[in-house]
Amino acid sequence: MGTANTVTWIIGASSGVGASSAVALADSGRTLVLSGRRAEALEGVRATVEDAGGTALVVPMDATDDASTRAAFDRIGAEAGVVSEVVFCAGMNVPKRHWDALEIPEFQAVVETNLTSVARGIAAVLPGMRAAGDGRVVVISSWAGWAYGRGAGVAYSASKTGLLSLTESLNDQESANGISATVICPGDIDTEFVDKRPTVPDAAARTRMLSPDDVARAVAFVLESPADVCVNELVISPVHSHSYGK
């Protein structure tokens, strides 16, 4: 169970899995820090957390920008304290997903959001976690990061696959400092994210997807696990529709 001294930073908290994770952790005793680009949406999530008896601090930021990330991290340190847990939920994909339509600027933007921003956030929190002798990192990847996702796209699949190596390298190098990392690989999730697919799923297809709350329960399970337990990887798929990428 978290305590008031447990500062949990959720990046990508304005909607989807990030928002649901904040609500799932609202009554855990943690101080939740909600980050993302959409300040108004973050305020709505904070209100929901506080209505459930939780404590939340809104710190808007652009996770793809070094200066914005550093400024947000410094503000968290000043207003909440050392980050004990960090959950990475921000993600991006583009409609042009095949090699015959690949645009390198779009590829770079997807990799920056899905992979580089996670490395940037981890690098920010690691010194404090090392000094404290503990810490948890939870990264939302995708089924397309765990197994090849035919429709997920060149950039998305590459970036999400990279998160598996990123988290395992963290476990390999930082477990001696009491730090553990988990990568969660969900199948299709019914969020606004799927509205950006080349073919948008209809209502019937969405009923066969996971909900953000389904994945948020997995996030809470990892964070509530004993400190000496590392959940390296979780793969989650909807029972009625095995999925191969967003």
What does this structure look like?
With 246 residues, the protein is of the alpha/beta class. The protein has a single domain (7-236), classed as NAD(P)-binding Rossmann-like Domain (Rossmann fold, 3-Layer(aba) Sandwich). It is 43% helix and 15% strand. Strands 3-2-1-4-5-6-7 form a seven-stranded parallel β-sheet, with helices on both faces. Strand 1, helix 1 and strand 2 (31-35) form a beta-alpha-beta unit. Helix 1 packs across helix 8 (212-224), helix 3 packs parallel to helix 4 and helix 4 (104-132) runs parallel beside helix 6. It is globular.
Q: Which sheet architecture does the biggest sheet show? A: 7 strands, parallel
Low-confidence sequence ranges: none
Total of domains? 1
**Rounded mean pLDDT score:** 90
- Please give the CATH class: Alpha Beta
Widest beta sheet: strand line-up: 3-2-1-4-5-6-7
Rounded Rg: 17 Å
Structural class: alpha/beta
The CATH architecture is 3-Layer(aba) Sandwich
